[in-house]
Amino acid sequence: MYDKATPIERLGIRKHNWWNEALHGVARAGEATVFPQAIGLAATWDEDLMLNVATAISDEGRAKHNNFARQGVYEMYTDLTFWSPNINIFRDPRWGRGQETYGEDPFLTGRMATNFVNGIQGDDKKYLKAVATVKHFAVHSGPETTRHSDDYNPTEADLHETYLGAFKAAFDNTQVASVMCAYNAFRGAPACGSEELMVDILRGELGFDGYVVSDCGAIGDFYYDYAHNYVATRAEAAALSVKMGTDLNCGDGEGNKMDALPEAVALGLIDEATIDKAVTRLFTARFRLGEFDKEVPYSEIPFSVVASEKNLSLSAEAARDSLVLLKNDGILPLKEGTKVAVIGPNADNELTLVANYFGYPTAPVTALEGVIAKAGAGNVVYAPGSALAGNVFGNRKPVEAGVFKHLDENGDLQPGLTMTSWHNRTGEGDPVSVTVDAQIDHHWKTSPINGEVADEFVIVWTGFIVPETDGAYSFGVPRMSEATVDGKNITDGPIEMKAGEAYPVEYTLNAVRDWPVNTIEPTAKLSWVNTSRDWAGEALEAAKDADVVLFFGGIDADLEGEEMSVKIDGFLGGDRTDLKLPQVQEDLLKKLHATSKPVVLVNFSGSAMALNWEDENLPAIVQAFYPGEKAGVAIADLLWGEYSPSGRLPVTFYKSLEGMPAFDDYSMKNRTYKYYEGEPLYPFGYGLSYTTFKYSDISVPENPDGGDAMPVSVMVTNTGDRAGREVVQAYIQLNSRPNASTPRVELVAFDVVDLAPGESQRVTFDLSPERLGYFDDAGKLIAPAGMSATLSVGGGQPGYMTEDGAVSTEVNFARE
Q1: What are the residue boundaries of the PA14 domain, all occurrences included (predicted)?
Q2: Which domain holds residue 243?
């Protein structure tokens, strides 16, 4: 009942590591295809593509597991129980983990989740290819800084209209095997110990019969004094969680809370029969994965599917379909032979490809690399231009071998660093080797000590850095590593260094099994950037001879994400405190704009950006989200017109936070497109194309019964001169809103169509009663009997489309 389940040797049951991740590719276990981050996948609005992506992910997950199992390796992140997808609603643009979701709409989220779950779990009637886990049940979307102690109490109407919808869709349309419960409290009780949430709603109202895993450390939050402090002891926490239906504890730095269950039984806090139910649910999943059978249909998936050409091509396809063209005054697509200045802190930033929860990409292409490949090196000049924000830089590169030195036996500086290796967890005792290493830039497929797939070791590099240029240098290292330069911890900020002087460096790689890391394909890399350069001056110089400036800006997963330590202007703990582009980037954009060179902005972010000045002054803007390892290929193809963009926003891009409720207020008032009363910068569902589409001949029944499915059809025609993909979106607006939680406008259907120039296609939908009705104040679904509504079908939300870009009709529902 712990994520690191120990073996039961007398029964021949191996150990099982329940924790694995597959948000947009198999994560944290070495090489894998990296697809666009979840928010980017949502921007495709393509259910078939999502199914294909998830199928590829589970193929790779099975293949990697098969390979590990053949070698007897059952480490963290090697088993088949994936804690994905994240189907919380991105209700507030400040949330750092919103990038992991499918956006702000429960229906879109539910449809994408359905296809992801089905792709992960496979279609065999007996066996699961892998386990999908929908998370975090259920009212959870920031703030990150207070997630262990916050208590949320939404109205019944908001609960059912917004927070439960995607989970219900997953339960209704898939056989999803697992749910993860959240950190926060729900109406007074920790979510994983809430009878109302876990028993009445999850197991009762929604009918879920699989197993539930806690978020990591959430059971400890029951009694930690800095968290909920809801019960007094570990035993009480363990008993309460299991009684409420939490079967599995993902631990934290304080270990397994379920080890207190024997004490809880002795104290009468829980009985063994209740524990048996939890164990039965857990072993049911392991049986369905085929762990105890010899012949399982997925056990022969070969390792060759991992990062295969087929999957890399699929990643590129998903990246292309995820890019959203927000503005285009006609400058795009660029003409062949255009000379471009590639500028911006995200132009050559690999983190913008992989975001968070990622595997090791085998063929990453940054925006800079993609542009050079497309336009030719002779037509491209590059300058990073600025930091991302504060002292956070996106263009660190490995420290060059030429500046590393060590002392020889005569005390003279020689090339390389002294590399000392220990085959233990502590780095104590006699080392197994002492050698000279030219550079700290390693990705090992197996242990460099003994060649094993999962091994524990410590390596320390010592010596000196002799920089060639004066400056304040910012350094970075990957997980499991730490470093000091000139006796200073590199996390304390940039380090002043003089050219030609020798500065002591010590780098330690602790490749040990710990929470929450494994030792699969360990890496060691010391990267740096000279923060003292005249970044803006270099950028302006680069722009002088260019026809067009391509500015790759925005943010990355070092600024937004899960419970982070970052605390700088605009960012706090993984969340955002405002929506603007970081000031250093906007200042540079204004200087570039003043040169009179046209500037095209490609913005990377997992959340909405208030690009107000940029929208007013720049001729073209592309929203890239975090597009996966083939980002550069997809972006360059869009910029030079190899395809017509079709991505649509899965979130609203607001002009500011003005009028929005407090971040920790879970009321939906004035949140998301369904309730927002202001004028957005770019609305939910928005995106431009290189061609045009016309909607006509909408068909709906006369006086339909709102308690039955309602057929709708519309004709869509490509009226442009090039092929294009259109995301057809249907919205309903009840002409009278029964309560505050009734949406002012609501997405009820969508589909994608590919049309040649002049081609027409009739698109049909069957709108279920759930799509037509509304929730009353008690959270009950009510059919719109006797009510009237406006149904609009087009390339985006009603009110934001051209005359040809949508068609609408009145619907008068029959009375009961």
Answers
A1: 412-583
A2: 4-305
